[in-house]
Design goal:
single chain, 280 residues, mainly alpha
């Protein structure tokens, strides 16, 4: 019993440390993908691009090509890690070795790949921007609009993650179930839910797309980042009509649950009014 308790505490400690690392990486990713570009555009402290340089000259510049190659390699590192560890043979092999920490290891390596990408990302400042809002009054109001919409999108993303069993996505629930001897939490879900989750594990495509593309200025390296991540999000999901039908059923059931308390209040109010009329 003591060995099981020690093992359980060790698993919980690793899982909580992983949660802290993933949380910090998520905050850094928000700063990297949203607030950094908008902040630089508002303050003008850092030049994001050089509109005076023609594209023909910029695309022959060795520093521009070197930066794009480095950034492409960093994006390849992230996409390969994210795809390889979710591949069924690799997932089964890691499951046999790591057990309940399989999902924890997946989230940790994802956060580590993000940290490497953000740390070594090379901005392309010697090429023109694809677009840039620099004329008053839009040079002031459009960055503020982008900031507001980015903040709203990240709030929606965080809310959705909380609704889709966030502890399971981070591997915390797997460790908790392992300590209680309940097995894999995914096995307790219905077959329709398991099928849906196997096709869609990141329900934030629209919001993340807005965050990637809605900017006051779109530089060449940001185009590479937004285009690669958007293509990866589009190709990584394989939803079909059966998944859509399951999702509609779940949404309708949630809406009915939310409407039931209001119906109860309305029914009670109606009965009270009818009883008052009878008494009168």
């Amino acid at each position: 019993m003591a060995s099981v308790t020690v093992r359980g505490w060790a698993l919980c400690t690793v899982s909580l440390l992983n949660f802290a690392f993933v949380f910090i990486s998520g905050a850094d990713f928000i700063r990297f993908i949203s607030f950094r570009a908008i902040y630089h555009n508002i303050t003008g402290e850092t030049t994001l691009c050089q509109d005076s340089i023609p594209w023909s000259v910029a695309l022959q510049d060795s520093s521009v090509l070197r930066s794009l190659v480095v950034d492409l390699g960093l994006l390849a590192l992230f996409t390969i890690q994210h795809s390889l560890l979710s591949w069924s043979p690799v997932k089964q092999a890691l499951q046999s070795v790591l057990g309940a920490l399989n999902r924890t290891a997946y989230c940790f390596t994802t956060a580590l790949a993000l940290q490497i990408m953000m740390r070594y990302w090379q901005p392309v400042t010697s090429a023109p921007c694809l677009w840039s809002v620099r004329h008053a009054p839009w040079s002031i109001w459009f960055p503020l609009l982008c900031f507001s919409l980015h903040f709203l999108c990240w709030a929606i993303i965080c809310s959705i993650l909380m609704l889709v069993d966030y502890p399971e996505l981070l591997g915390i629930k797997q460790v908790y179930y392992e300590c209680l001897g309940l097995g894999d939490p995914l096995s307790h879900k219905s077959p329709h839910a398991q099928r849906f989750l196997s096709h869609l594990r990141h329900p934030v495509c629209l919001e993340l797309g807005v965050v990637l593309w809605l900017l006051p200025a779109l530089s060449l390296d940001r185009l590479l980042l937004a285009g690669t991540l958007s293509a990866y999000l589009a190709l990584a999901h394989s939803l079909d009509k059966q998944d859509l039908a399951y999702l509609c059923i779940q949404i309708n059931s949630k809406m009915q649950l939310l409407a039931e308390p209001h119906r109860g209040i309305a029914d009670t109010t109606g009965r009270d009014n009818s009883s008052n009329h009878k008494e009168k």
